[in-house]
Amino acid sequence: MLVLTRKTNQKIMIGDNIEIELLSIEGDQVKLGISAPKDIDVNRYEIYKAIQKENSIASKRIDIKKILK
Questions:
Q1: In angstroms, rounded to a whole number, what is the distance separating the alpha carbons of residues 8 and 24?
Q2: pLDDT digit of tens for each residue in the chain (69 aa)?
Q3: Is 3 helix (H, G, I), strand (E, B) or coil?
Q4: Are 11 and 23 a contacting pair, CB within 8 Å?
Q5: End-to-end Cα separation, the chain, in angstroms
Q6: Which pLDDT value is given to residue 58?
Q7: Residue whose C-alpha is closest to residue 7's, from 19, 26, 21
Q8: CA–CA separation, 47 vs 28, rounded Å?
Q9: DSSP for 15-41?
Q10: Structure letter (DSSP) for residue 9
Q11: What is the torsion angle, in degrees rounded to the nearest 10, for the CA atoms of residue 31, residue 35, residue 40 and residue 43?
Q12: What is the pTM of this model?
């Protein structure tokens, strides 16, 4: 893991097309702005994990015979 220190309005680049800017620090909250191409999903970690769980459940094979009984 790379750990960086940034001040308000400073940026981090990921590759050539993902930009992360530290917008503000208020108490224990940090506000980030993320600019990325539209084909790259940007989600909070907990939303990402929920999507992965739902996709896993949806992809499991269903035995129709058991459902119809």
A1: 6
A2: 999 999 999 999 999 999 999 999 999 999 999 999 999 999 999 999 999 998 888 777 666 666 676
A3: coil
A4: no
A5: 51
A6: 79
A7: 21
A8: 21
A9: TTTEEEEEEEEETTEEEEEEE--TTS-
A10: T
A11: 10
A12: 0.73
What CA–CA distance (Å, rounded) separates 69 from 56?
25
Cα-flanking dihedrals φ and ψ of residue 38, to 5°? -60, -25
- Residue 69: predicted pLDDT: 66
Which residue, among 4, 33, 1, 3, has the nearest Cα to 18 in the 3D structure? 33
Tokens 């999507």 label which residue? 51
Whole-angstrom Cα distance, residue 8 to residue 18?
A: 18
